[in-house]
UniProtKB/TrEMBL annotation:
It is a multi-pass membrane protein. Its main location: membrane. This is Amino acid permease. Keywords: Amino-acid transport, Cell membrane, Membrane, Transmembrane, Transmembrane helix, Transport. It comes from Streptomyces orinoci. InterPro entries: AA-permease/SLC12A_dom, Amino_acid_permease_CS. The keyword Glycosyltransferase does not apply. PROSITE patterns: AMINO_ACID_PERMEASE_1 (PS00218). Residues 1-27 are annotated as: Disordered. Residues 37-466 form the Amino acid permease/ SLC12A domain. It is found in: Cell membrane.
Length: 491
């Protein structure tokens, strides 16, 4: 079947079920197993925001940052359970944009798909550039553009070989991050309880409140760190994009989502408690990794090298995820007539090669722009990542609320994985995200993110009405109860 035929599918297209009752995989290969899905879920919640950004947040809020991460982590759990309820109702690779299209309307699906695509393109640009800078820690003579080019090409081809290879890369990238955090926690516990190393004389849990209290700079300073905290959690929703390629989404996805509380408790709250017990919060400075500071205090001279290796893998993991998700988002838009038709075609291995190629090319262009003009203009583009990432969370919650109302009225089947406490927990999460956006507007360093949003919104609205006038059928309300025709791959 030609790509044009795929893109012009009937308006009533939905996900067909195979003989086992599972949702059809939209032409994709279900190559992501439980082991890989679990580590993708874990790795999605651990990024450079923890390894690097937490230093600035500690300087602002002191030990109360622990509370900020705990509360934000609870909100993230509500978001993920809302996503889980939708995924068990209909697990599709389009995920957020497909649910927005069904429950909120074609316009919202269009905006969500393109916004999430742009989020990962921008994130990929920043992360591959950051990875190149981390390489210079060991060898400053290696040109930044050269490392960025090599990393982008390697990850691009890895995403074109098979979805299993993507899963394996994410598994090992996540394993490095998890091992580093657990190692830091174990060493820190040893210092606190056994008193070894030069930090042993002062290390104590009393450090959490003995330097001007648990909330030394007041509740206002703690609230202002929430935007940093929420940024650290961006990409946790990536597990939803894997739904179309999970070997058994009805089992693996709920299991991955239910691990969110302990992941946050261990990797964020637990790690910060130990670090702040070893190093007084007053010794942290903006821009300095709390892990580097902790290793230095303990007296491990290779600590900076370890952290640099970890943040390098975190950056590469994020870029790898960007390559994966952008191709699938573009294909979802194409299948629904809201993107170029040629992007709908899959490779013989069931991979959205064309969308991935375009996204990778844009990431390379972004690296070149960053090399040529590293000033404010590029910062304005990068700042869009935060607000666009949170847009996906808003759409997940809004769609889950609409789905729950329809399911409760008997118009749709009930999900096998209901979000506990919904709709109240979902409404609370929406209110919390709204508060964070307001705080971003108050903070002059984050305000630029909000300036970008109306510009992108105007582009989306204008292009939507132009495309709708040219192809009204693609933007019509669809009947998601109708089966979808089989999708063929490229020869």
């Amino acid at each position: 079947m030609a790509s044009e035929q795929v893109a012009d599918r009937a308006p009533g297209a939905a996900e067909a079920r195979d003989g086992s009752g599972q949702e059809a995989s939209e032409g994709y290969q279900r190559g992501l197993g439980n082991r890989q899905i679990q580590m993708i879920a874990i790795g999605g919640a651990i990024g450079t925001g923890l390894f690097l950004g937490a230093g600035t947040a500690i300087h602002k809020a002191g030990p109360s940052l622990i509370l900020a991460y705990a509360i934000a982590g609870l909100v993230i759990f509500f978001i993920m359970r809302a996503l889980g309820e939708l995924l068990m109702y209909r697990p599709v690779s389009g995920s957020f944009s497909d649910y927005a299209r069904e429950f909120l309307g074609p316009f919202w699906g269009y905006v969500t798909g393109w916004t999430y695509w742009l989020f990962w393109v921008v994130t990929g640009i920043t992360e591959v550039t950051a990875a190149a800078k981390y390489v210079q820690f060991w060898n400053p003579h290696i040109p930044q553009w050269a490392s960025a080019l090599v990393f982008t090409v390697i990850l691009y081809f890895a995403n074109l070989i098979s979805v299993k290879l993507f899963g394996e890369l994410e598994f090992w990238f996540s394993m490095v991050k998890v091992t580093a955090i657990i190692g830091m926690i174990l060493v820190g516990v040893g210092v606190i309880t056994l008193g070894f190393s030069k930090a042993g004389d002062t290390a104590s849990f009393s450090q959490l409140w003995s330097h001007h209290g648990f909330m030394p700079n007041g509740i206002g300073s703690t609230l202002m760190t929430l935007q940093i905290v929420m940024f650290a959690f961006l990409a946790v929703e990536l597990v939803g994009v894997t739904a179309g390629e999970a070997t058994d989404p009805k089992k693996t996805l709920p299991k991955a989502i239910n691990t969110v509380p302990w992941r946050i408790a261990v990797f964020y709250v637990g790690a910060l408690i130990i670090i702040l017990a070893v190093v007084p919060w007053t010794e942290f400075m903006p821009g300095v990794s709390p892990f580097v500071a902790a290793f230095a205090k303990i007296g491990l001279p290779f600590g900076a090298g370890i952290v640099n290796f970890v943040v390098l893998t975190a950056a590469l993991s994020s870029c790898n995820s960007g390559m994966y998700s952008t191709g699938r988002m573009l294909r979802d838009l194409s299948l629904n007539g809201q993107g170029p038709k040629f992007l709908a075609q899959l490779s013989p291995k069931g991979l959205p090669m064309r969308g991935t190629t375009i996204s990778a090319a844009l990431m390379l262009v972004g690296v070149w722009i960053n090399y040529q003009w590293p000033g404010k203009a590029f910062d304005y583009v990068v700042s869009f990542a935060t607000i666009s990432g949170m847009w996906a969370w808003i759409m997940i919650l809004a769609c889950q609320l609409r789905y729950r109302r329809k399911a409760d009225r008997g118009e749709l089947p009930q999900s096998e994985f209901k979000a506990p406490g919904a709709p109240w927990t979902s409404a609370f999460a929406l209110a919390f995200i709204g508060m964070v956006i307001v705080l971003m507007g108050i903070d002059k360093d984050s305000r630029i993110s909000l300036y970008c949003a109306p510009i992108w919104g105007a582009i989306m609205a204008g292009s939507y009405f132009v495309l709708k006038a040219r192809n009204p059928q693609a933007f019509a309300r669809k009947d998601y109860s109708a089966p979808e025709p089989e999708v063929e791959k490229a020869a």
